[in-house]
Amino acid sequence: MATYSKESLIERARQLLPKAYAPYSHFPVGAVLLMDDGQIIEGVNVENVSFGATNCAERTAIFTAVTQGYGPKSIQAIAVAGDTEDFLPPCCICRQVLVEFCRPDVPVYLTRRDGQIYETTVSQIVPLAFESLKM
Ligand code: THU
């Protein structure tokens, strides 16, 4: 199975930026999922004139994984890249989707324009996650 460093996952996410559809915000984002079976799934943000129908890069990647047949909790790592001065963290809608599809200890790699990488986890970026309808 291919092995991927966090640097290589971040680089893959960065290479997606030209594919983002972001004519309104001019804020391209790329996200890469490393799946448990070693496959890579990519996503970019896809904006809409309504603004509200916009889909973030992270959700595009996760929804693509589901469409390809992956079940929940089959993600090994996530990398997110933008062209930002500071680290670009997933929005809170995407964080909730990450909770649904990732184990809590899944690493999340963030980056910024100077290439530095910030490593965190799903549980660190979503403390006290809502994840059950048990009553
Ligand atoms: N965006 C993402 O794709 N991922 C994030 O983590 C933050 C925000 C997108 C949504 C929108 O197209 C643009 O960035 C500006 O918010």
Automatic annotation (TrEMBL):
Pfam families: dCMP_cyt_deam_1. Its cofactor is Zn(2+). InterPro entries: APOBEC/CMP_deaminase_Zn-bd, CMP_dCMP_dom, Cyt/Deoxycyt_deaminase, Cyt_deam_tetra, Cytidine_deaminase-like. GO terms for molecular function: cytidine deaminase activity; identical protein binding; zinc ion binding. Keywords: Hydrolase, Metal-binding, Zinc. The active site is at E58 (proton donor). GO terms for biological process: nucleobase-containing small molecule metabolic process; pyrimidine-containing compound metabolic process. The keyword Iron does not apply. PROSITE patterns: CYT_DCMP_DEAMINASES_1 (PS00903), CYT_DCMP_DEAMINASES_2 (PS51747). Its EC number is 3.5.4.5. This enzyme scavenges exogenous and endogenous cytidine and 2'-deoxycytidine for UMP synthesis. This is Cytidine deaminase. It comes from Abiotrophia defectiva ATCC 49176.
